[in-house]
Amino acid sequence: xxxxxxxxxxxxxxxxxxxxxxxxxxxxxxxxxxxxxxxxxxxxxxxxxxxxxxxxxxxxxxxxxxxxxxxxxxxxxxxxxxxxxxxxxxxxxxxxxxxxxxxxxxxxxxxxxxxxxxxxxxxxxxxxxxxxxxxxxxxxxxxxxxxxxxxxxxxxxxxxxxxxxxxxxxxxxxxxxxxxxxxxxxxxxxxxxxxxxxxxxxxxxxxxxxxxxxxxxxxxxxxxxxxxxxxxxxxxxxxxxxxxxxxxxxxxxxxxxxxxxxxxxxxx
Length: 268
Ligand SMILES: Nc1ncnc2c1ncn2[C@@H]1O[C@H](COP(=O)(O)OP(=O)(O)OP(=O)(O)O)[C@@H](O)[C@H]1O
Prior knowledge:
Elements: E1 8-17, E2 20-30, E3 35-39, H1 46-53, E4 61-66, E5 69-70, H2 75-82, E6 85-88, H3 100-111, H4 116-129, H5 145-156, E7 163-167, H6 175-191, E8 195-200, H7 203-206, E9 212-217, E10 220-225, H8 227-232, H9 236-243, H10 254-257
Parallel strand pairs: 3-8, 3-9, 6-7, 7-8
Antiparallel strand pairs: 1-2, 1-4, 4-5, 9-10
Helix pairs in contact: 3-4, 3-5, 4-5, 5-6
InterPro entries: AAA+_ATPase, ABC_transporter-like_ATP-bd, ABC_transporter-like_CS, P-loop_NTPase
Protein name: Phospholipid/cholesterol/gamma-HCH transport system ATP-binding protein
Keywords: ATP-binding, Nucleotide-binding, Transport
């Protein structure tokens, strides 16, 4: 892979879940170094798109290339690729009986054979990067929601992944903590030379730090462009989502539009 190659290249992608089509005709290129916001209403398929990028979900058709290679179906090759993808999930996933430092050390212990002093040093660096070096010995229950999210971020960064994926990084955070996390997303992306994909419905907190925005609705990408172009869009679909209007071209029950029965797990 050369430095000019995109980090993610998706072409003609169709994704199905539970026998139902969720996304179709998706084309997306994420250039190296960018922060790309993937926006869209609940249930539009944002997490489904992430699942295709991390190889959890195989395409029904089309192609997904990540870090210069088609996402492998072979488990061993997939695990290798995933070492290059840091993922921050909305639930944090911190282990409650381990300290912040021990949580951050986990991926290093699992995936490397580095000696203990080197791991300790790397953990201190990652905690420092998220402004939490002083909290190294704290347990997750002793941290605020924003601090716990930053520890989870430090853990996702542990193996220096070239690609970071954030799935709803602001869920449950107050406006101040949200600002801190989004600022970190941008600064870490630039300082550590990463590329970031941020899936969220927190439009107003995310657009200021994004280089590019994509809006998913009604089974596909309905907007792709700069945050400025998104804010200026007059497309009724985009406006309905941005302005939070209940009535418009995005149906309340998006499954109904596809002519299939809503899935049992569909969010209310
Ligand atoms: N494992 C699954 N099996 C069947 N259907 C699924 C599965 N996961 C998601 N879906 C369906 O796929 C559609 C898209 O879901 P997805 O979670 O990707 O949306 P989302 O945009 O990430 O939503 P949210 O913002 O609420 O997290 C929904 O209709 C959902 O019910």
